[in-house]
Amino acid sequence: MDFQAKNGLSTPQVREKLLDVAERLFTEQGFSHTSVRDLTKNAGCNIAAVNYHFGGKDQLYKAMFHRHMDRVFAKQIANINKVMTSESPTLENFLETTFRTSLEALDSSDGRIPVLKLIVRENLNPHMKEKVVKLESFSNFLEQVCEALVKLVPGLSNDRAFLCFCSLQGMVLQPLLFHDFYAEIGKNVSVDIIINHMVDFAAAGIRAVAKSK
Amino acid sequence: MDFQAKNGLSTPQVREKLLDVAERLFTEQGFSHTSVRDLTKNAGCNIAAVNYHFGGKDQLYKAMFHRHMDRVFAKQIANINKVMTSESPTLENFLETTFRTSLEALDSSDGRIPVLKLIVRENLNPHMKEKVVKLESFSNFLEQVCEALVKLVPGLSNDRAFLCFCSLQGMVLQPLLFHDFYAEIGKNVSVDIIINHMVDFAAAGIRAVAKSK
DNA sequence: TTTTGTTTGAAACGGTTGTTTGAATAAGTT
DNA sequence: AACTTATTCAAACAACCGTTTCAAACAAAA
Fold this sequence. Notes:
homodimer; mainly alpha; DNA-binding
């Protein structure tokens, strides 16, 4: 009932192993299609471990979601800072870094998993009652991007910058969700080509929007 | 076992009613979260009706998916033709029509349901073994869009047009998936403003890509 | 060693799922 | 009318789900 009551910090291995497995299975198969038996079998532990360490499937999902979001947004923001504090930051430079970080999960399928895909899942089928996505992390990321855009593109208002953020998010989303699908129907494109295209497309789009009345 | 064996065409009412309910519930809640009991209760028929008329939950899903895709792609292509056969078709004109048709499900939540959302669901959790999306319909739509883009934008190659299609698809996807989410965190924007922004953004993006080496 | 608290294990519980069954009803034909 | 087919219905089925239980194994401290 009161799992890890005293030992507030870390239960050594099983907890982490379960979080790792959860990150992989939940992102690949979704919440409903991943059973507790799947998770524990892949983690090499007993079925009861999920309830013992986390208090239920829901809360394991929540814990992994938050851990993952914190990691990825921290990385994105670090990248943005690196670009913006360089000697001569350009819009193209900023876009390429952001796109590449978001899309690096596409090629060389090492363990990297895109948060956006997770967020899309959570948005289609909410599993947490509380405000779905960790708002502190996400809002912070959103503001950092908008702030950078306003600095990089003369004449861009805050409102317009938000709309641009949405467009950028969509452009990233598309290959994340559909790259495999298009590959299957013969429309295969390398990630580098996609990124180059997206930089050209988005840079022109943002600059045009900045000049628009 | 052999449902509607002789009467190959239409079983009068229950079939259609089930397809309508399935279209609504599957798109709102997803495949797994929609039980056969939900479907039949909303359709006002018996539980066994799904298996009797369609042969199972899977095949009801498939039938509604195909019916819906055929309808929406037909409408999209009709719109494209209307624009392209007008006296002076412009890129902005084409984009606005396409965007508005795709996003009309956002405001005034009448029964309209976006296919793209369905396709995203199906892409995240495939429920059909066969090539997921009806390829004839989708490929046709894709080609029509690319063809129109090449005609409207001088210098745009076929390969580049495909990449632009992907970017457009992403830009449409974003509000479809996240509009409600952003509204909940105070970032509410009217559909008209979104569309105007997207037209500006995409038009500049496409023209820039056309001039790129 | 004995004691104490934490972690694991196999089995079972209650609930929901999609599907099947077989009788009852409706519709259609001869 | 009788007979045949198509459809509906309530009930039951088998399989899976997340969770609980409680005894066994383990660790660390006394």
